[in-house]
Every structure is written in structure tokens, then in C-alpha cells.
Amino acid sequence: MAIVNDGGGFNISVREELFDTVIELKETFNADFEESYNRLEDIYKKMSSDDGFKGQACEGFMELFDILLQFHKDIKDKMPSFFNEFDNFRESLEEIKSTSVYKELY
Questions:
Q1: Domain boundaries of the chain, sorted by first residue
Q2: Which pLDDT score is estimated for 71?
Q3: Which one of 13, 81, 85, 102 is most buried, by most CB atoms within 10 A?
Q4: Which domain of life, per UniProt (predicted)?
């Protein structure tokens, strides 16, 4: 967004392609993260059912893996609210652009 005073008033311009890029980034992130999380969970399930990983030597590894899975799950659950802010910003921008003040300035 740029605000310029060209002598005849203020000119406000918005590069909407930047918002499109943010939306695309959000969708890509969500897709990649979902895929990564599912792969990690599959590996965990395979390892936890394998007798070779049930020995005492591997308990620490399994606990660490549990923590990692929980961390991924927490991020997965919490990040959508962060990315929703981009959607909210775009909606707010659309509201601003529909006002008479914006139309007069633009």
C-alpha cells in the first residue's frame, strides 16, 4: 500500500497481487504441513508397532518422537488462526475500498 500526495490530494494505491501471494503462501504452507504431519505420524505408528523399537534402548527416542508429534500437532492446530489474520486483513481492505472516503482519495 502506498499513500502519495501529488499536490491535488492523496493517492492511495494497493498492490493486490501481494495479498494473493499471501493467500497462496497460506494454502501451500497448510498443504505441506498437513502432508509432513501425516508422514511423521505414519512413521511413528510403524515404529511403535515394530518389536525392534520396543526395547528399553529406544524408549527415549520414542518419548522424543512423542514430543515432536505433539509439537507438530500444536502448530497445526494454532497456525490457522495466525493465517486467518491475512484473510481478515483482506476483508478489512475490501471494506475500506468500498467507502466513499477511499473512492475520493483514490
A1: 21-95
A2: 79
A3: 102
A4: Bacteria
Q: Rounded to the nearest 10 degrees, how much is the dihedral formed by the CA atoms of 21, 26, 31, 37? A: 140
Cα separations in angstroms, 49 against 45, 53, 55? 6, 8, 12
What would the pLDDT profile of 47-78 be if each residue is shown by its tens digit? 777 776 666 556 666 777 778 778 777 776 77
Three-state secondary structure string covering the chain: CEEEECCCCEEEECCHHHHHHHHHHHHHHHHHHHHHHHHHHHHHHHHHCCHHHCCHHHHHHHHHHHHHHHHHHHHHHHHHHHHHHHHHHHHHHHHHHCCHHHHHHC
Yes or no: say if 63 and 21 are a contact pair by the CB < 8 Å rule.
no
Half-sphere exposure of 81 toward its Cβ, with a 13 Å CA cutoff? 4
Residue 2 predicted with pLDDT over 60: no
